[in-house]
């Protein structure tokens, strides 16, 4: 049971998860088990799966737009990291503002690519003026992209968690694990918790996602760990006043 449970609209997304491209997968079933274990009274999820093909991304965008407009906070579970681009886009349109993106990931996802992919989506968002605060990155940055943490610009924040940000010794069921180097930091659950709490301090969470879990990529799917990540998000404090959503702009003209 989570006090803030009724603020969320849950979208369960099995669109890629970075591994097998064709055919059904069991990501959805793994996520349903995690939900049942961590959040028994969770709201009914909307399902989007890979068989929706090219419209899957637009469904994510539309649903996030609709959820925010209805006064809810989208919580996107599953999918690869390109999913975040479309979820963010729907949220941004609904709040009529440009929330900062706090991006927890072993990868910067800022590689140059014309298409929006799981390895280029932050580059596309940066180009559109979004403040992308990437934390936990353990790969070299491409030329021309600053690795420096940006200043906050918005009191609205979108949280995106690529579960590969965790130390592979904590969770190995991901497509592209990156070991913790000699320089650290050790990205364990305590680290994740403190990053999330720092990210939300003094501002409103407009949406969150947990992406890139590939349960079949390792002998141990790591459902307990992913459940812990979900629980950390659900535990995040709701700002004073409890109203975490943004009223859509209303015209007073008649
Ligand atoms: Mn990523």
List the helices and strands and how they pair.
Layout: E1 8-14, H1 27-38, E2 46-49, H2 56-69, E3 73-77, H3 82-95, E4 100-104, H4 121-127, E5 132-135, E6 156-162, H5 189-200, E7 204-211, H6 223-235
Parallel strand pairs: 1-2, 1-3, 3-7, 4-5, 4-6, 6-7
Helix pairs in contact: 1-6, 2-3, 5-6
Organism: Brevibacterium otitidis
Family: Belongs to the arginase family.
InterPro entries: Ureohydrolase, Ureohydrolase_dom_sf
Strand order of the largest sheet: 2-1-3-7-6-4-5
Largest sheet: 7 strands, parallel
| Cofactors, ions and other ligands in the entry | manganese (II) ion
Helix content: 25-40%
Question: Number of helical segments?
Answer: 6
InterPro entries: Ureohydrolase, Ureohydrolase_dom_sf
Pfam families: Arginase
Keywords: Hydrolase, Metal-binding
Protein name: Arginase family protein
Top keywords for this entry?
Arginase family protein; disordered C terminus; Ureohydrolase; alpha/beta; globular; Ureohydrolase_dom_sf; 28% helix; 7-stranded parallel β-sheet; 7 strands; single chain; 254 residues; binds manganese (II) ion
């Amino acid at each position: 049971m989570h006090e803030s449970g009724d603020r969320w609209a849950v979208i369960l997304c099995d669109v890629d998860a970075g591994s097998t491209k064709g055919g059904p997968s069991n990501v959805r079933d793994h996520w349903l088990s995690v939900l049942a274990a961590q959040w028994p009274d969770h709201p009914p999820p909307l399902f989007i799966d890979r068989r929706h093909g090219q419209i899957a991304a637009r469904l994510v965008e539309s649903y996030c737009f609709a959820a925010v407009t209805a006064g809810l906070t989208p919580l996107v579970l599953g999918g690869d990291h390109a999913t975040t681009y479309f979820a963010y886009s729907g949220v941004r349109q609904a709040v009529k503002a440009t929330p900062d993106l706090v991006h927890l990931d072993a990868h910067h996802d800022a590689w140059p690519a014309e298409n929006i992919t799981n390895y280029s989506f932050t580059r596309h968002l940066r180009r559109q003026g979004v403040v992308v605060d990437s934390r936990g990155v353990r790969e070299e940055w491409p030329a021309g992209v600053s690795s420096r943490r940006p200043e906050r610009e918005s009191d609205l924040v979108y949280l995106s968690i690529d579960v590969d940000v965790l130390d592979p010794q904590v969770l190995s069921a991901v497509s592209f694990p990156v070991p913790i180097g000699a320089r650290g930091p050790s990205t364990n659950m305590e680290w994740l918790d403190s990053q999330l709490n720092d990210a939300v301090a003094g501002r409103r969470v407009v949406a969150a996602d947990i992406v890139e879990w590939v349960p079949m990529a390792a002998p141990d799917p790591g459902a307990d760990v992913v459940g812990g990540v979900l629980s950390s998000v659900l535990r995040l404090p709701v700002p004073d006043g409890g109203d975490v959503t943004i009223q859509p702009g209303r015209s007073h003209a008649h």
